[in-house]
Amino acid sequence: MADGQEADKNIEIWKFKKFIKDLEAARGNGTSMISLIMPPRDQISLFTKMMGDEFSTASNIKSRVNKQSVLGAIKSAQQRLKLYNKVPPNGLVLYTGTIVTEDGKEKKVTIDFEPFRPINASLYLCDDKFHTEVLNELLESDDKFGFIVMDGNGTIVGTLSVLTFRRNMEEEGNRPEGLPFFGRRNAITIQPNVSGLILAGSADLKTELSQSAMFDPRLQAKILKFIQEKRLIGKYFEEISLDTRKFVVGVDDTLKALEMGAVKILIVWENLDMNRYVLKNSTTSEIIIKHLNEEQETDQSNFRAPVGSAELEVQEKMPLLEWFATEYKKFGCTLEFVTNKSQEGSQFCRGFGGIGGILRYQLDIRSFDEFSDDGEVYDDSEDDCEVCDDSELEPINSFPMLVQENGGKRTAPVQEIEETPKELN
């Protein structure tokens, strides 16, 4: 299990990935979305001049609506560049323009930030989408990982960038017992120059290799098997199998335990498809919290009060994963994202709904009311276990992620809504 610092780092990486996905999903009405990237040691004045030239060129656009959108985006970029005397040490990234929200309205956004790693690219594009290729490159690790892929005919040994093939078949009748395809004179003894090693291949052959005395101990120490994830979920399953009452399963019970401060480790599938709604009863003004997956969102009964059938007005909608990532520290817990790629992770997702937690103390969650201390109601009207299928990211409606200040210097994306949303023409 990762320590607190490593867990926080993983969450920030997840936030940045989510931010990139939201940018990629955003679409504009015409070529009114500007992507501007400046490398370190470049000059703000050069980009300011370039934006001035672009403004003059855009003035000749024939479509009045498109021309206004493009000119507005350029003006926003010019105003934001005035906040900088020079390009920050890691470079500067700026996105601005008019996007179309999922409800068909226009929203003007401007986002600028210094990336967390030096960026060496220079980019200016005015398009109907934001260009994020350079941001994805920031997430690429400098570490190299090795692969050993085996079947009955041979072995492929290589890294992500360089791949070499070596046949390791033994002659018939010269195979040590328990190692049908590997003999002593062909034992794997490569000097490791990778951060991690992945074994793959047919059946149990890869397991036999890893457990063999002929497998160099220097490589043995490099094998990656989702160790952190397996240990974490293994601990969670152990609490369940021993019925320690120090565990919680599903969205509804997990939220209740969080409100009580009982959750020590919050475990969530990294692709959990569920939104958190803050709803207001139009008759009583009661605030209700609901957590709905994509299928539940199409059921209009979820947006009506159970008593009196009053309409529930949507005050706020946010992906539940995003809410966890921004709020978990308030509950005094550690947040761990897991995949469904390991055996344990797949079981956690399919059998437990992709969300649960390890508790600080024994707790019988069913003995508590449906209400939290502040009167909010947590409502999960469907079985939590059927939320694990992958689905496409919904179109962007906001950029709430990664808003933070560090000594007055922006180190993360900042959104500015410059215009009240209006209906499209």
TrEMBL record:
Cellular localisation: Cytoplasm
Signal peptide per UniProt: none
Membrane spanning residue stretches: none
MF terms in GO: translation release factor activity
Chain residue ranges for the region called Disordered: 404-425
InterPro entries, A to Z: eFR1_2_sf, eRF1_1_sf, eRF1_3, eRF1_Pelota-like_N, Peptide_chain-rel_eRF1/aRF1, Ribosomal_eL30-like_sf
Keywords from the named record: Cytoplasm, Growth regulation, Protein biosynthesis
GO annotation, cellular component aspect: cytoplasm
Domain (eRF1/Pelota-like N-terminal): residue spans on this chain: 4-140
Family listed: Belongs to the eukaryotic release factor 1 family.
Protein role: Directs the termination of nascent peptide synthesis (translation) in response to the termination codons UAA, UAG and UGA. Modulates plant growth and development.
Protein name, UniProt field: eRF1/Pelota-like N-terminal domain-containing protein
Protein source organism: Lithocarpus litseifolius
